[in-house]
């Protein structure tokens, strides 16, 4: 089994380069094969993962740049193993969702696979430099995908804004990476070793800022979210599935993997551990309010994403096992729900030619199956018990309550607003707003969801039920996680 | 060995000649090539001249490269390897720079050969000038005395003054040459005056002697400090660091493209060889003084270079300003000093050689008979006109912007690590914020390269010859990033001879 983690990032990387070189008619098949192979590999890792073992598994370690103790160090634990599977699953769905008529199809699929490789690497890397390499490695394909295949009148603007926001964060993280090397006294970039050599709280205060800025932009946490609506609205759907479904999670994942273990006591002029949960709650409410105000249905989903990511960050910064387990669960849940929502939005736009909430109405008679699927996904998104999001949100709020009841109450406002914007969206789109004076016109044309689209949505919807009814599938791996998490970060003092 | 003035020098023994010539063997090889090239240009039949001299130059530079590599591998550079009464050296630091300059020379000759044919310039003269400049650079790399430093500096500069004005029919090229001549002369005067003061204060022009004198005598002599200041200003002119950078964009823009490419890497590397040798070795005990000066210069260079690059619309000017910024990054390594700092500088200079020269070389393929075609609009849709060139240009820009896993990222990582370890975290933070700005303009180039064209525009004919060179450069940009350790190890071995000054 050794070498499987390297294979997990190398397969899509090599497959991506190959796809970019293949002629148009072969590239789609090749990309699907690569993405499916990747899913199989990650499932093998998840299947043979030993949930009783605390610590990294499938570890691969080699020196890379010995002069600076840079290592090639890969491994997975309960935190990352399901995120790897999610990455592979969403990538497969995204590749399948790519229309054959896409311009420059070979390059598109090649870049998608390269991005998948970068994100897989982020979830596996246990060395800060290696992590940084993958972190930037997923950014470049994302930039080109967003810019060259973007929708709207100025995708280059959305792409550049996204890249500059993210880069400002990640380059500061580079200083943080170097700072860990220089100031921890360990003279290594190995995450586990660095966690055992923490510098003084004053230095942690500085380093925390340098790392956090990269992660809060990526998630994004309020008030660093302004790239997100531009980017999500411009993004082509297949890319958006991976972009919204997985890439945002890398920021939250990095908070748990790097930010808290390396800098648990960031106290200087103030305590950063007290700042981030407040920002998270502000994001929950702000995102929900903005979602309420949108006309464009894609924008509604985009802003709801900011709100949902706030719950994840709140859970992480609750500094207890429930909150952080809930956050991990919620990362997966959100990674399943958001791609499904964007697929449905794209389906509606393809059939009606618009995404305007004011124009669209009364779609249910014309596309009954689509309406049904939309209803399930909407219910999942607003946290209906029995569907997946409920468990995660409940756990994060439970954790947050133990941390600070006020924050939990404020966060729950977002939970109240979610049904408002999601149900209003569903009703407005699917049914007519006013009682028709005369008998409704007979439905002449049905433009319901196609079988292919339904096949793409089916696994996501199935997972929503599965994780909602049987969350133990994920949480059985999380005790290994929760134990270590007790010490991550200090309570709000 | 105490040597002050010619009176104390013993008579030169013929028996030393072999050892001394060996120490500077790469320089000898290029000099012989230069002489052969000049003669060949006179005797060869006219249609063959250009190609013949290009061939001779490439061959000679390859010999120089081989000699340097051989001496390095044989371990002859590990000691001080002094020659000519300690005025020059063949130590590993010098050998590494000789490898760099020989590689640069070869790339320049190949690119220039294709370029001049398309533009209809004289060919052999340009190659000969390149060789002369390479000699000057190599002398700078191996100089261990202020006199030899100045000798190298002038050899390099005079050859480049002529090369800049090589396009005689173009007023911009003439302006470039005139500007470079005047500013260069100005900078040389500063350096010379500084050297004179340092000589006055220490009584020697030899860097090793100067270092030991300063460590024992009073280091705070005002004469010495003024000398350091003047030399610092002159050096900053040469590496085109702000606020002494004004000449760079105009000179780069006016000069023919291969000359710009050559200058942008060569003069910078040579000037850094000089700075490290003089400041980091000869004046190492005055560290706090020149470090403060250079830290200021580095910070301004990074800020000014990156901000000014944003508004450019010519690739040459953009790369000129980006070069100013990169001079700032590299200065961080110089200021950090020690084996880590110097190794990081050497690593970055090799990285810069491949990525910056590569970028210029890609642009040089667009040149037509009437102009250099270095405007953004000329790059439009390059990726669709030639996917190879598009991908390569993307690689070079990403590497210059410092994206992993390309060599530019590791160069920055090592420089910044050295800087933070030496306590210059504030400088590294400025560098990082400046890098964010730099991403904007490097991506602007990419936007033009990848913007689809409405109609097909073929590339100029006759660029087949340099595609191989471009591929090689691109391969190095990727490979030296993924496997960074060996080159870094070279850097550490190059730093070794400089760590023993005056101790």
Verbal overview:
The complex is a heterodimer of chains A (493) and B (503). Chain A is mainly alpha-helical. Chain A is 71% helix and 3% strand. Chain A has 20 helices and two strands. In chain A, strands 1-2 form a two-stranded antiparallel sheet. In chain A, a hairpin with a 4-residue loop joins strand 1 and strand 2 (70-76). In chain A, helix 5 (128-137) runs antiparallel to helix 7, helix 14 (321-352) runs antiparallel to helix 18 and helix 16 (388-403) packs across helix 18. Chain A is globular, with a radius of gyration of 22 Å. The model of chain A is unreliable at 482-493 (pLDDT under 50). Chain B is mainly α and 503 residues long. Helices cover 76% and strands 1% of the residues of chain B. Chain B contains 21 helices and two strands. Chain B has helices at residues 17-23, 25-43, 46-73, 92-119, 124-142, 146-164, 171-202, 207-216, 222-238, 247-254, 257-282, 287-310, 315-336, 338-364, 376-379, 382-385, 387-401, 407-421, 425-450, 464-482, 485-495, and strands spanning 82-83, 88-89. Chain B has a two-stranded antiparallel sheet with strand order 1-2. Chain B is globular.
Outline:
Chain A has 493 residues and is mainly alpha-helical. Chain A has helices at 4-21, 24-47, 78-97, 105-124, 128-137, 139-148, 155-183, 191-196, 201-218, 227-234, 237-262, 272-292, 297-316, 321-352, 368-381, 388-403, 405-430, 451-469, 472-475, 479-485, and strands at residues 57-65, 70-76. Helix content of chain A is 71%, strand content 3%.
Tell me the span between the first and last alpha carbons of chain A: 45 Å
Q: Approximately what portion of the residues of chain B adopt beta-strand conformation?
A: under 5%
Strand residue percentage of chain A: under 5%
**Helix content estimate of chain A:** over 70%
What is the SS-derived class of chain A? mainly alpha
The count of strands of chain A amounts to: 2
Distance between the termini of chain B: 14 Å
Radius of gyration of chain B, whole Å: 22 Å
Spatially, the strands of the biggest sheet of chain B line up as: 1-2
Uncertain ranges of chain B: 1-6
Percent in helix of chain B: over 70%
Radius of gyration of chain A: 22 Å
What's the β-strand tally of chain B?
2
Number of helices in the DSSP assignment of chain B: 21
Oligomer: heterodimer
| Helix/strand order of chain A | HHEEHHHHHHHHHHHHHHHHHH
Contiguous uncertain segments of 5+ residues of chain A: 482-493
Would you list the SSEs of chain B in sequence order as H and E? HHHEEHHHHHHHHHHHHHHHHHH
Overall geometric form of chain A: globular
Secondary-structure-based class of chain B equals mainly alpha
